[in-house]
Each structure stands twice: as C-alpha cells, then as structure tokens.
Write a structure and sequence with these properties.
292 residues; alpha/beta; Helix Hairpins; 2 domains; two-stranded antiparallel ribbon
C-alpha cells in the first residue's frame, strides 16, 4: 500500500503534467482558429475554379492533355498528408489505418508530414519522397508537392495519383478521406467547394457566351497545373485545421483527466492520512489503558 509521501509525490507529478497539457491546449486552440479560417476561406475559391474550368472544358472541344490521360495500369501513387508532431489524438492512426489498405506491391507513397513518412518506412512500403509544411501552409510548398506527383504521372512511373488526408468537418470531427488527383476526371461545378462534404453538381447552362484568348484549349492547358496546385494546397489546409483541432481536443481531455486523477489521489491521501491518525490515537489510548 502506498504511503502518504508516495501519494503526495504522485499528486505533484500529475499537477505538473496538467500544467503542460493545459499550456499545449491553449497553444493548439490559438493555432486551431487560424487554421480553420484558412481552410474555410479556400473552399469558395476552389468552387469558383471548378466552375471556371467547367466552362472552359465545355468550349475546348476534343482537348487532350497529359494530365487528363486515362490509363489501364495498376501502378498508383498516394500522397499521404499527415502531421509532423504527435499528441493529436487518433488522427495519424486513422490515416495509417487507411494507408495499409493500398496494395503494397503496386503503390508508392509521397508523404507530406514526418509521421506518415515514419510509418511508411517502418512498414517497409515504398517511399518516393518526403515533404514538410509549416503550421500555416504556403502555396509554394503545395506547388512543390504537386509538381513532384505530376512528374511521376506524366513520366509514366504511376498510372494514377490519390490523396489520403484528414478532411476537416468540425472541431470535434475530422475524417480520413481518399480523393483522386490524377488523372483529372470530368470537371464539374460544385455547390460550395470541393471539400467538407460538398456535392458535385452538373453545371447549369447560362445565356452568357465566353470568349477565350488564345483559345479554350490554351486556357485549359494553362489552368490545369494551377488547378492541381491549389487542390494540394487545400488538402494541406484541411489537414492542418484537422491537426490543431484534434490536438486541442486531445489536450483538453488530458487536462480534464489529470484534474480528475488529482481529485481521486487527494481523496486517497486524505483517507490514508485519517486512517494513520486514527491508528495513532488507538495506540495512544490502548497504551494509556494498559498503564492503568
């Protein structure tokens, strides 16, 4: 049975842990708000870009582009967007649970985030490249990642590219999702962006006729790489918003559990202390009675 000294030491240790988790919760809460706003702000732009591309594609005729090439091969690249740090709940575990579903022999991984790269290396899967990105992702970082996977596809090293990331739904809900990136399929308009549960809808015909210079196919050819760059950028924003939200919730739960543990230990300490006092009183009384 632990002594009162042991319980006091444990209470002190748990209090120190609670202070750390509380500080991490406050930091994650501050970053979470900025990341959520950035992710939500990118969705309308993605919606407008899809609508524009849909208009251009409708006037491009028989347009051919390497990024649109459909292939029958089974070689696949997966862009795994994870975190650089832990202590964010089950976020990375949910991602890796989805990652193991891909065929190990025909899949090569491109990782954004250290945790994903460590898992791929640990499980002896093929890792083509590892990228890092900041707490506030930069478009240049997304462009570098997008350029790498585009080169893999255009050179014929893979036949398709998918993205495995955590989609931000709310502060309490983040879902791992797999989204196709290459080849670019049929471009349609969307109701309110390409992420967060929006549904694709057929683009309504309007009475407006657009004129494209130098031509619809030239405009579409220039827009497709930028479209992919922004898609990857939006994936990074969604992943960061999910990471900070998950970490804030995890640290809040850890702080609450630490406070509850302190209460339980304090109760045990008081019970043990009272038992020791009662025992001493009984010993004194028994000795006094024995002496007459």
């Amino acid at each position: 049975m632990p002594s009162t000294r042991d319980i006091r030491r444990r209470i002190k240790s748990v209090k120190n842990t609670a202070q750390i988790t509380k500080a991490m919760q406050m930091v994650a809460s501050s970053k979470m708000r900025k990341a959520q706003l950035a992710a939500l702000a990118g969705r309308p732009y993605a919606s407008l870009m899809n609508n524009l591309l849909a208009h251009v594609a409708g006037n491009a005729g028989d347009f051919a582009h390497p990024l649109l090439e459909q292939r029958e091969g089974k070689k696949r690249a997966v862009l795994l967007v994870s975190t650089d740090k832990g202590l964010c709940g089950a976020l990375n575990s949910n991602l890796t649970r989805e990652a193991v579903k891909f065929d190990k022999d025909t899949t090569v991984f491109v990782c954004a985030g250290k945790k994903g790269a460590q898992f791929i290396s640990r499980t002896k899967r093929k890792l083509a490249a590892e990228f890092t990105y900041k707490d506030a992702p930069l478009f240049a970082e997304a462009r570098a990642i997008s350029k790498f996977v585009q080169d893999l596809f255009v050179k014929g090293e893979v036949d398709r590219v998918d993205v495995l990331y955590t989609n931000f739904v709310s502060t309490l809900v983040q879902k791992p999702e797999v989204q196709p990136l290459l080849p670019i399929g049929e471009i349609t308009g969307v109701q309110s962006g390409v992420h967060g549960g929006e549904t694709s809808v057929a683009l309504e015909k309007s009475g407006v006729e657009y004129l494209f210079e130098p031509g619809a196919d030239g405009v579409l050819g220039a827009l497709l790489p930028h479209y992919l760059n922004f898609q990857v950028y939006q994936f990074l924003l969604e992943a960061k918003a999910s990471e900070h939200s998950s970490r804030m919730v995890a640290m809040k739960n850890a702080t609450d559990n630490a406070k509850q543990l302190i209460k339980d230990l304090t109760l045990d300490y008081n019970k043990l202390r009272q038992a020791n006092i009662t025992k001493e009183l009984l010993e004194i009384t028994t000795a006094q009675m024995a002496l007459g």
